[in-house]
Known about the structure:
Number of domains: 3
Helix content: 40-55%
Strand content: 5-15%
Number of strands: 13
Strand order of the largest sheet: 6-7-10-5-11
Shape: flat
Structural class: alpha/beta
Amino acid sequence: MADRDRTLLDxxxxxxxxxxxxxxxxxxxxxxxxxxxxxxxxxxxxxxxxKKWKLRExxxxxxxxxxxxxxxxxxxxxxxxxxxxxxxxxxVAGAGRGETVDRRVSQAVRLHGKxxxxxxxxxxxxxxxxxxxxxxxxYSLVKADSDEAKTPTLVERGRVETRESTLDAKxxxxxxxxxxxxxxxxxGRRAKSEEDRSGETLDRGGELRRVKGEIGRLQKVIRHxxxxxxxxxSRPIRELIARMEKVKGTDVTVLITGESGVGKELVVxxxxxxxxxxxxxxxxxxxxxxxxDVAVSELFGHVMGAFTGANTDKKGLFETVHKGTIFxxxxxxASKECQAMLLRALDGGKIRRVGGTxxxxxxxxxxxxxxxxLAEAVRRGTFRExxxxxxxxxxxxxxxxxxxxxxxxxLVNHFIAAYAEEMRVAKAQFSDRAMDELLVHDWPGNVRALxxxxxxxxxxxxxxxxxxxxxxxxxxxxxxxxxxVESAEEAEKRRIIAALEVSRTIVEAARKLKMARSTLxxxxxxxGIDPSQHLKRRR
Length: 539
């Protein structure tokens, strides 16, 4: 690219960045990637055959980059401001004979600013910055008085050419010619371009996927949502996130409780990423999956000869993750010996390897999780009371899926997107009847079971439309409080309440339950259920 063109684009970049810093500082992290996308498009447009090329059209194409933004599902002011700035400066650079650049600035700002849907305040700032840039770039803000007007243009892969006008005695143009580079070279390049066109078309899909991925990553940055991986908008999820916000950025020991499959590990990872130790190591150990005598060695290490097979000294997780975070999953299954050593590590910040005598200072944040009732375990004497209180500095309960059924459609869409590329089901959808089945199911396996169900249904379905027959929902009975299996009446009552909670009317609830409205009314009376307390519209 010629120096003058490079200078023009650099100046446009400075102006756009200044506007974003002033008005949309939260979008500043997006700027480098978005600018790179737009600049590459401008250079691509500059390779058009010369006879088809017009400066003003090229200027408009810069804002047409907004169309490319829509193509990749992007609608940020950063992109709009950047595209408009490029377009305006290209337009000003093409000011022709008989008009002042001052007038062209005003026209360009109005034209391209309107197309980019910029506010009046932004247009005022943009016009002021462009006028300053015009002076720096050498575009006089007064009417040209020479007999020839030469303006830089972007043609043929960015090479700068000049457009020359010959004027008659009255100062009017009588002929216009535009010298281009060697015709044979241009034809050769156009021929090569046509040969590569099919390959470029094939690459287009890959380019869009790459840009979409980058925009997706940047969207997470711009949103500043620390817990975006927690899917859902229901009240239980909002309460969960509010609870997580309380310990964001701290080193507090946290105890996470919840049934199997609710997503406790997801909560742990989110807490670590938003803690002061986010750049330090993070390691997890499932104490239910490790033999009790092995768990102590895994956590605290051992010295050579401590037991049969201990041929060398070994560091445990507490040493390995120094300054980081340890996740103790299924803490309720820890042995008595392991509990005693954990208490010492948490209280004094020191550990001792198995078979060793040296005390080692460690600085580790501990997050524990369990699907058991630790308070009941303390009463039974199977879990140390002092360790329970040391772990339960701050508790977070993760709700079961049956308590947040309204999040099920969002979770289903999330899983479809996750499996889209792997299973080639980008356009898959669940029929209304299939979604109704999901909404009223008990989900004893919670979110994990829903994910497996979605994956199985996507495998079974025809034409990427999931029907009830594709779901193959399990009939595993849910246990009531106290561990007993609930009766058929209890299960039916809970199923009716579940349908009401995701419906706005009795008719809708009856449809989800696949029963007549009159039958539903009978069931409501039989179980003493007040629908007004459960229907979605009343909540």
